Amino acid sequence: MPPDNWETFDFQGRPFYRFELHVRDERTIPFNVAQQIAGRYDVLDVLARGGGGLILIARDVKTSNAVLIKALTEYRTTRHDLTQPVEDVVESLRRTRHHLQTERRILVQLRNNGCESVPHPNDYVFDSNPVLAGPQPTLSGEEWHFDEPELITSEPYLVMQHVAGMSLKDVLENVYRHGLEETVALRIIDQVAHVIELLEQPLQLTNGQTWDLIYQDLKPANIMVDEFGHATVLDFGGCQLSIDDTLVLHGQYSPGHCAPECGQGGQAISHAADAYGLGSTLFNMLTGQDPRSLLPKNAPPGAPRAVHIGTAHLNGRCATEVVGLIAKCVDWDPSARYQSASEFRAALKPLLHWT
Amino acid sequence: MTLTPGQRIETPNGSAYAVGECVAETPWYRLSAAKKIFSNYRYDDRQFYEAADDEHIEVIIRHAPSASTNNQSLRDQFSERLWFESSEVLAKHRSWMPESIDWIDRGDDSLLVMSSPRGQTLRQWRNSDDCCLPLCLRIAGEILSCLDSIHNHRQVIGGFGPDDFVIDAASRITLRATDRVTSADDTRNVRPPLPPERYPRGFSAPETLRADGPLDSSSDLYSWGQIFQFLMTGDAEPVAAVDNKRDAGIDRLTEALHELARATPQTLRAFSSRKDRRTLDDIITGWSLCVERCLDADPDRRPANVAALRRLALNGGAGPLRQGWRRLTRLFGGK
């Protein structure tokens, strides 16, 4: 059953849910979703939310299985006034929705290349988004409505395999507050590094384009683990994407977890940024210390949103070789780090005890 | 219904599949490779369109065998088992099995669309450079956890071999033989409705290969014992349960465990604790005894389930890793 605070209403003769989502600056935004998306997926609850998206838990009525559905939450649909072309809003919709399509393509490529540690993209469906129907306010206080039903009924949803377990962030905050055992942590980071290793292979598309991806937002909140220690990397919506060496998507990163070069000057970052993420995540797993807690309180505008991770915290918690591995990952100089996840995994392999 | 390469399947929900080659044909089912076709929306002309070929995800479709073409009864039985596989097997053991993606009814026929597990079979992997003994031990432990999950739902595989699991580059295993998982009866009075020919010879227990042999969790532990011996020694031929090959096989397994203890003693030490003070020799003896008992031709002399096997191998205590993960399990609702 869906949560009690979800309202129900009808739109175009079908039942929908409506609830508020908390966003930045203590604002809330309305979120609407069909009770049964695309005539197939019964929406049950919210699993998580983050940068512009929401993960819903739903039940597939065809297979009776639980699934996860990624939905978009934040559109820029505000016009300055009624003279601003509606096409500006349509372009904003197109860009935002394209991110979800890109995320699906990344998952497809990873799964087709043999990666079991990302959610399987089961379906990609479209349904109505009543919020878009309006009325929408302009900045000058007028109201307007979309008069194109095609845009309202083409809201995309990415349907994915339901992933068992809990986020690594929750594991570290609620179960292993002082960190995981070294062998368990190394097993988890090896699975995560394998995903990054496949992600960093350039994708040659049939249209002749070459895609280069950097995950960039590696952190425990984006990793699910089940009770057997299987790791699943979630949320590929923050990837940096370059097409034919041109930076197309800057992507997203998380202060405290990200490499220092992330968000600096709008330049493309390299695979070394993901080596940093692997090191900071491993540090977090071994110590239980969230790197965000090391962020300076009053950093000047434009300063890197990364932290200096001191390996002294690791003393006595793991082998000295593991300390050395992490130190090389979290060096602030990208050229001093492992230059790829393959290089990281090669260094990690002799340290895995495989127990 | 026969699926032919190049055929397109459309469902009432708007899903579409492009059928590829038939990748397996048995008297009980056929498997066809396929691609799920995704659609995108084009904003210039406000229209949906089919994504490019490299945007489609590769899947597997299990469908009825040729023998059922003109036999409604066989088709009904097949559909019933297929639904069991989708809803009771794939959906219940997701850490170890392909994902059930779609269920398609086409007239009297049913199709199950599953994710396509990638990687090498355990047999291929054992002969590759990726294989090492510490990892073999962990894989054997993973298979035990998979069996534990199956048995906890009162199900059994009945018999499996090294071609029934695939392992990916992150050493994650997936059971391919999900069609073989059936409901089990604790009393051993009911044999699941699958013929002996469906199970791999050599790796399956003697009762599995008899038409009237009742199956239970100990039948799976027989296969596990064979797999463990295979992984640790690389012996191509399974160890027979009924002749003197078994003793020779156990000897080779013991040698392999000693080799492991010499190369990476910490791997085996994880099965001991300060409290129980077991030596490496104790641990090796425990595992060898365990496999020997699993390979007994008499099911009553085998460990009855995974918990009993672990007790036998660990001499009454679980390994520290498992204890650690049990804390997580409790958090998930005390299962």
- Kindly state the percentage of residues in helix of chain B: 25-40%
- Helix-strand category of chain A: alpha+beta
Low-confidence stretches of chain B: 316-335
Q: Write down the domain tally of chain A.
A: 2
Mean pLDDT of chain A: 90
The biggest beta sheet of chain B is recorded as: 6 strands, antiparallel
- CATH class category label of the largest domain in chain A: Mainly Alpha
In percent, how much strand structure appears in the residues of chain B? 15-25%
Rounded to the nearest angstrom, the radius of gyration of chain A is 21 Å
CATH fold node name of the largest domain in chain A: Transferase(Phosphotransferase), domain 1
Instruction: Give the radius of gyration of chain B.
Output: 22 Å
CATH architecture term of the largest domain in chain A: Orthogonal Bundle
Can you write the helix and strand succession of chain A as a string? Answer: EEEEEEEHEHEEHEEHHEEEEEEHHH
The tally of helices of chain A reads 8
Strand content of chain A: 25-35%
Per DSSP E runs of 2 or more residues, the count of β-strands of chain B stands at 13
- What is the spatial order of strands in the main beta sheet of chain B? 1-2-3-6-8-7
Shape of chain A: globular
